[in-house]
């Protein structure tokens, strides 16, 4: 028999059997597991063991991977360059240009049968006639390739982040008897995984052992209630679900595409493709509107039918889920996106509105230009000259049409989305180096507008390396670790055992990487501090854990915000039980009836003694910034002897009622109180000072004691002596913000939050209410933009509600990371300050580009329009305007969007929500420069031939040789544009426009390349660019006019901005005003086809989806978002909640339906004839804040800053 690593090569259970096994739940699941001899039997069949796990042998792991699959879901293949080219060329304006250019090209070879004079003209110029049409085609190809290359390179760049994200996501497994962290992708069937609070489960498995385990399966079922799991209740745990409470051990039974979530992904891929096809049909105007609740019929391969089938099958077997789904029929009103897409970012909202408005204005002028050119041509030829129709006139009409389309191309600011994308992409890449991993691109820009930061304490403001520095044992307060021999025998062993047993077994102290280094704290840092105290006493917690393994526990009451404690019950040798408890001192002491006094004497713990201990020991510790934890116990004894005063006597057949927690965890005996220090990070006070200078208010929201919070806040600089501030506990905060009916009132919140600096003993509801209250408040004209940090599972609501949510990369749970916008890879507050700086830089970069582009837009459109009216021709030819368009869109956006941030950015106040996008200073610069450029261009147009003593270019015939006159106009315009690009680098009225120019090599490289290209175009462009070579003198004049923009810029700067009317600013007001316009443009928006009032008009769809290119051009941003979110999905392997954020799931796909997939598969295995239709309808599971509150892991107890289940 073939063997692998000493065991048979053939497993005694097949992949198919395991897949079928994982489709069962509850008692049915227990029955199926018992058919295989229980979980122990399954482990034997997979050649693994509970205690030893897998051997970790490479050959063994590879064989399991080949047999049962690897724990990765193949990513959606990236779009090829050719696909991106095809997408780029679908833009309506480009298509119109291509058609026009092709017609122009064909007409140039067409020789009409006419009188000899006209034929002679055609023959004379026919070798030039094709050049213009061909040049336009080449220009279009260049634009398309540049756009596609931008898309391609950025998509590759973001896929490059994948390895970083995947490399950071590890999971705890037991291999060769040791608990180790391995990459999620390396988990194989047969691995023994340790699961704990906050974990996102990476594979399907069966519980071996669990403690008070509750799992959120809403990502699969759509049900918001947490599901209790246990070996005797429901042992099946599924990938993509979240551990909300408790801990346990599982044996992995299915990974990757064979897990329940993987099966759903496989089916879903076909369903989503179908829905995308249906949407494409809808866009083409075919019958049948596809909305978020559409029934998509799929007759060819049955995928759609399958989904419909299991939808019905699941509804039949799970009436509660159906009721829950039916009760919320309008779930689709919640934007799909995992709750993240609360609204468009401030900048994107205003930019989209601006782009649409410019599109309308530009297109109106383009239509007028064509109309005027055609009317003037017809009047001249057919009325004044009274000429008959000739076929050659087609060329003239096509030429006029091309000019109009080109005006439209120049007018439509398609560079805006590109500039946003480039700036964000560049910033995101750089922010990685500053320990900010950006999950949602718009968060980067929003952070620049932040006016308030609500920060956690532990790990963010402090180092999260905790140590016990004070202890109170047997009426002795010690500020150094005592000797174990100095602790009375009655007390010492119980303290050691109580800490070792009543802490998560995943919390450990590991040797440092180098000899002499401090031990590494793995898991919950508070528990690690207590384990360090045990080691400091000279004892080994590991020996006690080996003597009392987790499977020996009788009951575990895990930490939550209601308990603010954790308790573990173990069996005693005499048949009794001992309950150990630890938690927040003031909470535990209230439950204590006894205490060990001087020399270990057991004493009754009276109310007076409690008060004295509180005031003389606990409060002084808290005022020193220490977290205080009490450790206590209670014995339940059997036997004939009399029980002690602090013991509970049990009869021979009596068992404590473990369900009655209130009476079980009561009448405790206090063993000790310890003070744990978590020092403030040395860089935090300076970072907070920078925030305050930048106009950002920092608030601390913590679950810790109010005295500890006040001490840390003072050390950080959050509380300053000269400030009028407020420090509240959660209870007092709630009393102040609620009316007599217990409802939160905004006007009451508005009295509290402006002065509030520290919120202590807070719950997740308090944190959420504070964030929501600040965001919704209208007492400040500029409105607040709020950033929040969080790391616990139940920080999710506040992280999602915030404008920008920061999750901790080290201490944060998977759930918190999924709810966040940015992950702090070093958990450090100073990284948030860097995010603010980058965010402000993004906003300023976009504003610079806007100032530059709008000047070009205004000038080019007016010149083309007035030129058409005055001289029956545009001074700027079609190919020339395409070149200008390339300069001002792609090249300028790249140059201006890649400016590096400077510390000066933190010296101004934040913009807030209502700051105008185009300030009065910017409008002054735009209008000032446009005025100068128009005067110069029209001066050259009407007087240039006299100034330079050259032949006039006005009134030239079709296909006439290019003139120096119009070449000078084109050259001067481009040079003025180039020098104005230097002016555009400063938007706040600074005079030194060259400051920092050499810190951005991209800018000066592009500027020089554009210059060189312009020289080549002028001197050698000839017919292709409608240019004629200029002399040195003419070049110097062009340069003189170009450099004049710099001098003129200084003159414009001297005009006082304050005296300008506010009407000159644009984009003032709250971004909500702009969301209607945006919702028409993006793929994410949905409307009800039955509601005519909400349905966008055909004209709006044409403009927004076509001429303005917003839908087409924003694909870059969507590609980035989807790529980042895809990476997050793959990082967690099956995070189905993230599925709502995925690019493929931009059309809604329901979570409850996904769970039903499994039921369908079971039905399909039994009956191979699937029914005939598909319904994809996904409720985004709501977050019940009140339920969350009960499970909040706050700063109070040992559990708050970790991904551990217990304290």
UniProtKB/TrEMBL annotation:
Its biological purpose: Catalyzes the hydrolysis of ATP coupled with the transport of calcium.
A molecular-function term among this protein's GO annotations: metal ion binding
Any Gene Ontology biological process: regulation of cytosolic calcium ion concentration
EC number: 7.2.2.10
NCBIfam families according to UniProt: ATPase-IIB_Ca, ATPase_P-type
Stored PROSITE patterns: ATPASE_E1_E2
Protein name: Calcium-transporting ATPase
Transmembrane segments: 92-110, 130-149, 354-377, 397-426, 849-870, 926-944, 964-982, 1002-1022, 1034-1055
Domain Cation-transporting P-type ATPase N-terminal: 35-109
Family: Belongs to the cation transport ATPase (P-type) (TC 3.A.3) family. Type IIB subfamily.
Any coiled-coil regions, as ranges: none
InterPro entries: ATP_Ca_trans_C, ATPase_P-typ_cation-transptr_C, ATPase_P-typ_cation-transptr_N, ATPase_P-typ_cyto_dom_N, ATPase_P-typ_P_site, ATPase_P-typ_TM_dom_sf, ATPase_P-typ_transduc_dom_A_sf, ATPase_P-type_domA
Catalytic activity: Ca(2+)(in) + ATP + H2O = Ca(2+)(out) + ADP + phosphate + H(+)
Annotated segments matching region Disordered: 319-342
Localisation: Cell membrane; Membrane
Organism: Polypedilum vanderplanki (Sleeping chironomid midge)
Swiss-Prot/TrEMBL keywords: ATP-binding, Calcium, Calcium transport, Calmodulin-binding, Cell membrane, Ion transport, Magnesium, Membrane, Metal-binding, Nucleotide-binding, Phosphoprotein, Translocase, Transmembrane, Transmembrane helix, Transport
Topology in membrane: Multi-pass membrane protein
GO terms for cellular component: plasma membrane
């Amino acid at each position: 028999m073939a063997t692998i690593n000493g065991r048979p090569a053939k497993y005694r259970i097949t992949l198919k059997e395991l897949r079928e096994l994982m489709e069962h739940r509850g008692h049915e699941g227990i029955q199926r597991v018992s058919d295989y001899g229980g979980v122990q039997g399954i482990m034997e069949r997979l050649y693994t063991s509970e205690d030893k796990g897998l051997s970790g042998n490479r050959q063994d792991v590879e064989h399991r991977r080949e047999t049962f699959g690897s724990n990765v879901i193949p990513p959606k293949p990236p779009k090829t360059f050719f696909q991106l080219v095809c997408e780029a060329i679908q833009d309506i304006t480009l298509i119109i240009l291509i058609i026009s250019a092709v017609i122009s090209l064909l007409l140039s070879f067409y020789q009409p049968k006419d009188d000899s004079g006209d034929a002679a003209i055609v023959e004379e110029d026919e070798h030039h006639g094709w050049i213009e049409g061909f040049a336009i085609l080449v220009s279009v190809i260049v634009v398309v390739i540049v756009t596609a290359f931008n898309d391609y390179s950025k998509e590759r760049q973001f896929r490059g982040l994948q390895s970083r994200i995947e490399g950071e996501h590890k999971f705890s497994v037991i291999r060769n008897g040791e608990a180790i962290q391995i990459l999620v992708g390396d988990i194989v069937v047969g691995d023994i995984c340790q699961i704990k609070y906050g974990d996102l489960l990476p594979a399907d498995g069966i519980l071996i052992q669990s403690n008070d385990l509750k799992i959120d399966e809403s990502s699969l079922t759509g049900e918001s209630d947490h599901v209790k799991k246990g070996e005797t209740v429901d042992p099946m745990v599924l990938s993509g679900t979240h551990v909300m409470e408790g801990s346990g051990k599982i044996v992995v039974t299915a990974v990757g595409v064979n897990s329940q979530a993987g099966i759903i992904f496989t089916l879903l891929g076909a369903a989503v493709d179908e829905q995308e096809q249906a949407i494409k049909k809808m866009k083409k105007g075919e019958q049948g509107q596809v909305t978020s609740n559409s029934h998509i019929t799929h007759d060819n391969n049955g995928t759609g039918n399958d989904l419909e089938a299991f939808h019905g099958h699941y509804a039949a077997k799970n009436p509660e889920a159906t009721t829950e789904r039916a009760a919320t029929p309008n779930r689709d009103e919640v934007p799909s996106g995992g709750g993240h897409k609360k609204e468009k970012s401030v900048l994107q909202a205003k930019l989209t509105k601006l782009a649409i408005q410019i599109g309308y204005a530009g297109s109106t002028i383009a239509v007028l230009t064509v109309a005027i050119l055609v009317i003037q041509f017809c009047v001249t030829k057919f009325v004044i000259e009274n000429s008959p129709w000739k076929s050659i006139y087609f060329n003239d009409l096509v030429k006029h049409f091309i000019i109009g389309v080109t005006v439209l191309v120049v007018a439509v600011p398609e560079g805006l989305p590109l500039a946003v994308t480039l700036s964000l992409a560049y910033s995101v890449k750089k922010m990685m180096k500053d320990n900010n991993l950006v999950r949602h691109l718009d968060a980067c820009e929003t952070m620049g507008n932040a006016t308030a930061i609500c920060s956690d304490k532990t790990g963010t403001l402090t180092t999260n390396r905790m140590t016990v520095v004070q202890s109170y044992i047997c009426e002795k307060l010690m500020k150094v670790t005592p000797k174990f021999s100095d602790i009375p025998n009655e007390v010492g062993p119980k303290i050691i055992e109580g800490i070792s047993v009543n802490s998560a077994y995943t919390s450990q102290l590991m040797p440092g990487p180098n000899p002499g280094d401090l031990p590494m704290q793995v898991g919950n840092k508070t528990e690690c501090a207590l384990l360090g105290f045990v080691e400091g006493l000279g004892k080994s917690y590991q020996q006690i854990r080996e003597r009392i393994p987790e499977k020996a526990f009788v009951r575990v009451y895990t930490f939550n915000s209601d308990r603010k404690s954790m308790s573990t019950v173990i069996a005693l040798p005499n048949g009794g039980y001992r309950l150990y408890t630890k938690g927040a001192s003031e909470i535990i002491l209230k439950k204590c009836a006894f205490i060990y006094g001087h020399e270990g004497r057991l004493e009754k713990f009276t109310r007076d003694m409690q008060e004295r201990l509180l005031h003389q020991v606990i409060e002084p510790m808290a005022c020193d910034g220490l977290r205080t934890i009490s450790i206590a116990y209670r014995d339940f004894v059997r036997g004939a002897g009399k029980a002690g005063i602090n013991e509970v006597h049990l009869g021979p057949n009596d068992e404590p009622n473990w369900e009655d927690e209130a009476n079980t965890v009561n009448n405790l005996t206090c063993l000790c109180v310890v003070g744990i220090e978590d020092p403030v990070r040395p860089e935090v006070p300076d970072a907070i000072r920078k925030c305050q200078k930048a106009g950002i208010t920092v608030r601390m929201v913590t679950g810790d004691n109010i005295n500890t919070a006040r001490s840390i806040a003072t050390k950080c600089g959050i509380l300053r002596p000269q400030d009028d501030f407020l420090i509240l506990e959660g209870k007092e905060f709630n009393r102040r913000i609620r009316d007599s009916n217990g409802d939160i009132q905004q006007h009451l919140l508005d009295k509290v939050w402006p002065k509030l600096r520290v919120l202590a003993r807070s719950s997740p509801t308090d944190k959420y209410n504070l964030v929501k209250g600040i965001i919704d408040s209208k007492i400040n004209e500029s409105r607040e933009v709020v950033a929040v940090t969080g790391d616990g599972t139940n920080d999710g609501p506040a992280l999602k509600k915030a404008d920008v949510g920061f999750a901790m990369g080290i201490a944060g749970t998977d759930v918190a990371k999924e709810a966040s916008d940015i992950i702090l890879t070093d958990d450090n507050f100073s990284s948030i300050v860097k995010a603010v700086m980058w965010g402000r830089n993004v906003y300023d970069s976009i504003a610079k580009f806007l100032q530059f582009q709008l000047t070009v837009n205004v000038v080019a459109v007016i010149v083309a329009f007035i030129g058409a009216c005055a001289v029956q021709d545009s001074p700027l030819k079609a190919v020339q305007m395409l070149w200008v368009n390339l300069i001002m869109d792609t090249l300028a956006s790249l140059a201006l969007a890649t400016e590096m941030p400077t510390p000066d950015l933190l010296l101004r106040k934040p913009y807030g929500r209502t700051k105008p996008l185009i300030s009065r200073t910017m409008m002054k610069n735009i209008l000032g420069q446009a005025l100068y450029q128009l005067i110069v261009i029209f001066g050259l147009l009407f007087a240039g031939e006299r100034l330079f003593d050259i032949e006039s270019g006005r009134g030239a015939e079709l296909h006439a040789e290019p003139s120096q006159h119009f070449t000078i106009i084109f050259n001067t315009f481009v040079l003025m544009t180039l020098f104005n690009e230097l002016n555009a680098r400063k938007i706040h009225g600074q005079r030194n426009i060259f400051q920092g120019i050499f810190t951005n090599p991209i800018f000066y490289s592009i500027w020089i390349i554009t210059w060189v290209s312009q020289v080549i175009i002028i001197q050698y462009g000839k017919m292709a660019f409608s240019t004629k070579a200029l002399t040195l003198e003419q070049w110097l004049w062009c340069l003189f006019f170009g450099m004049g923009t710099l001098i003129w810029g200084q003159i414009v700067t001297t005009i006082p901005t304050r005296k300008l009317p506010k009407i000159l600013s644009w984009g003032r007001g709250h971004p909500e005003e702009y969301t209607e316009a945006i919702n028409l443009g993006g793929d994410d928006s949905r409307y009800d086809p039955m509601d005519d009032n909400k349905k966008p008009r055909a004209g709006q769809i044409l403009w927004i989806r076509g001429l303005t290119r917003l839908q087409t051009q924003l694909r870059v941003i969507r590609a980035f978002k989807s790529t980042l979110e895809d990476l997050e999905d793959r990082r967690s392997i099956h995070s189905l909640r993230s599925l709502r954020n995925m690019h493929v799931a931009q059309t809604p796909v329901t979570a409850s339906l996904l769970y039903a997939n499994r039921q369908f598969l079971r039905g399909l295995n039994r009956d191979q004839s699937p029914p005939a239709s598909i319904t994809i309808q996904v409720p985004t599971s709501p977050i019940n804040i009140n339920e969350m509150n009960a499970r909040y892991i706050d700063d109070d107890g040992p559990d708050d800053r970790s991904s551990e289940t217990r304290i």
